[in-house]
Amino acid sequence: MAEALSPFSGRPFRILWTGQSVSAAGNAMATVALVFAVLEIGGSATDIGLIIAAQAIAKVVLVLAGGVWADRLPRQVIMLTCDLTRAAVQVALAVLLFTDRAEVWHLACGAVLFGAAQAFFGPASTGLLPETVGNKNLQQSNALMSFSSSIFSVAGPALAGLLIAGFGPGVVFVLDASTFLVSAVSLRLLKLAPRRVTTSTSFWSDLRTGWHEMAIRPWYWINLIAHSLWNFAVAAFFVLGPVIAADQFGGASSWGLISASSAAGAIAGGIVSLRLQPKRPLIAANLALLLTALPLIALAPPLAHPVILGAAFMSGMGLTFLNSVWTATMQELIPDDVRSRVDSYDWLLSMVVAPIGMALAGPVADRVGTAQTLVGAALLIVVPCSLTALVPGIRAVTRAADGRIVGPEGRPEKRQPEPVGID
């Protein structure tokens, strides 16, 4: 366990983890607050959907640009700017709610600005983590980041519900803004070694370079395809699961238990990720992702509620393990000067495919049946993730005796200089 927690021995990681954990708590509450803010001002379910869609579109449109700028500029500066932007947005919306002046279009504009900031923050954050710990213990570092997020995903919505019931959604917006300020302060306190930036004078040239660096790595883009199919298929669980819970198990409370079980599994997956370092990381991670098919299969008949709870727990555990190992592998094997640009394609595919799956799950179930849709979605997870184990380039990504992850050529593609952080 001492080795698993070793990232905390470095001051830069401790600072980053603290800021991001506090911010994760605010985000977990803000998602609930946004929905109830729309309802409080007289908005409808359609308005909620349009606001969420507006935020998603802003992220999709700008995420590749976010990757380019995260490779051009100091990543902590980009993240700090995004935190301050999101804090300002949340404060403005809180003031409008407190003064009873908020309208649906205000919330929509705030969501667009929020999504734009997220588009720049995501690729920068993936690129920044190795700067705080080097290439040592990247899997443990990512697991620790996921661990705190998983905990707050359980407690955050519950706390938000209590605060909204007692004081209204505006208070939660203020709290979320304060967590962004804490994150911004933590980023300001980071002292990192100067990073060598090798970019061209042309934005479009840098963008093409990012595509090229992704395309020359089959182990990377084949995994992206498999993970995109997962994002598409797992939407059936979130769309059809609540309907089944309402029809078969008593409604919202049973679905809440299923969601809580998945979050608890994510916490367990974070603990597993701290300790387990597989010889072939991508093979192990993708096989762990097969566990996410279990809730889909369990809901299809549906099976007994305790069985579904167990399946949801295993699903959360498998997903967190996949995310920790996959991100660590990508961070170690993708050169630092193009890391954020390459990672932005992962963000892009996830943000595009998931809403499509959400939109199609209901109509497909109406046409072919709920059980058949769930089983089909499970197969769309199991088959591609299993087939990745047969790809030579993915099998060739291995962990060396010293713990390093090496690429298909049997060596790291580019090492970070050590030490990276300044204590």
In short:
This protein has helices at 11-40, 45-72, 75-98, 104-133, 138-167, 169-189, 203-215, 218-248, 252-275, 281-289, 294-299, 305-333, 339-368, 370-387, 392-395; strands spanning 398-399, 405-406.
Description:
There is one protein chain. With about 425 residues, the chain is an all-alpha fold. The chain contains 15 helices and two strands. It has a two-stranded antiparallel ribbon with strand order 1-2. Helix 1 packs parallel to helix 5 (about 140-165). The longest helix is centred in the middle third of the chain and has 31 residues, at about 220-250. Mean pLDDT is about 90; it is low at about 410-423.
Strand tally is 2
Distance between the termini: 23 Å
Order of helices and strands: HHHHHHHHHHHHHHHEE
Stretches where pLDDT is under 50 for at least 5 consecutive residues are 410-423
How much β-strand is present in the residues? Answer: under 5%
Q: What is the oligomeric state here? A: single chain
User: Which secondary-structure class do the elements indicate?
Assistant: mainly alpha
Helix % is over 70%
Strand neighbour order, sheet with most strands: 1-2
Mean pLDDT comes to 89
How many DSSP H or I helices? 15
Largest sheet: 2 strands, antiparallel
The value of Rg in angstroms is: 21 Å
Spatial shape: globular
